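haha ok so turns out i had the wrong file open the whole time. this is the CORRECT one, sorry everyone. sequence first:
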Amino acid sequence: MPPKAKPAGKGRAPAKRKLAEEFPPGEVLTDTGKRSWKLGAPIGQGGFGLIYLAEENSAKSVGADAQYVIKVEPSENGPLFSERMFYMRAAKPDLIQSWMKAHKLKSLGVPRYWGSGLHEKGGKSYRFMVIDRLGTDLQKKFEQGGKRFPRKLVLQLGLRLVDILEYIHEHEYVHADVKASNLMLSHSDPNQVYLVDYGLAYRYAPDGVVKEYKEDPKRCHDGTIEFTSIDAHKGASPSRRSDLEILSYCMVQWLCGRLPWEDKLQDPIYVRDSKIRSQGNISEFMSKCFTSQDKPAEIQRFMEEVKSLGYQDKPAYDKLRFILQDGLKSIQAKDDGKLEFAAVNGAAPPSAQKTTKRKKVIEEAGESETDGSPMKKKRATKKKEVNGVKKSPKKTPKTKKTDPKSRLVETGTQTSPGLAQKSRGRAKKTSS
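then structure:
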């Protein structure tokens, strides 16, 4: 018998967590490397933590031009602990710099990790982490532009994300929650974009050994429901192909304004089955999203390439980049390094848009580091993969869960308005 669905807002984890108390400007925190950091003004709040401007400790106060942010949460909370593990393993400055040099990259959109530790105050313990300060998120830009991005911009973002995902994947992690609200512009360079919020990041290949495919009914639909992968809809852990599947949904939405299943985000089974149908006939899916004149052939090719991947397969990143670069050539454009967020003809003005609530799911056990995660779909009439091999599936209980606002948002890298917006779009579970 299928387990009973939990009513909305009754998730277990959030109720046990406490918000961090606000520290006064000038508070000094010392990380595990004995490096001291001075807090400035708080610039935002995550699900269960606060984000402050910060600089290395000195006699000067921390100004509005601070280069770093510090995320702070009560030590008994879990989100920052999970996120910190990713940053410590894969985002140290020298590691990122070495990768950029080896791959001849001018930039790589992964925020750098500068330190972390515990801070005692008033008899209480707080966990903190120091990372790069960033600017506004792309969800805000998307809405300001009438919920459409120019095709050149979408292809440029796709190229940057393939670079970022390849780096993350080669360092044993998948992100599991690519979306506009988790993409942020540099604080100092509007042409650089960073993938943030590693709250759902998953170590898919510890010590280089790729984990096998396994479905867990308790984890069905984890992530941001409109974008999450079919693997996540089925309760399987995210994989490299999951990240790229999510990216493909993002690019389609950025180009046409909305995905076909966005009218029923409260029904995860409907969303799952819609995605399964879209993967079964990608050409038909593209026709639902675009007119024949506007259909981007390169996005269909990108989706076909991702669809061909097995659960444990390593993606052909160079081929994916070639497909996106070919798309730029088809519109007589090139990746000139400039991200232009000009309004698209035909896009609805922001005032005329309907706000869509983002449905997210928490990874309750060891809450990961980003705003949402990929989702998977499954259907009895379709074949499924078991350990990477397609087999006829057995019927499994349909598990739907709801848990609104249950994940820590990546507020540590943006200013207050963006943070507030992002917080509203955080993790939720959907009860059916």
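Residues 151-170 form the longest helix (20 residues).
again sry for the mixup
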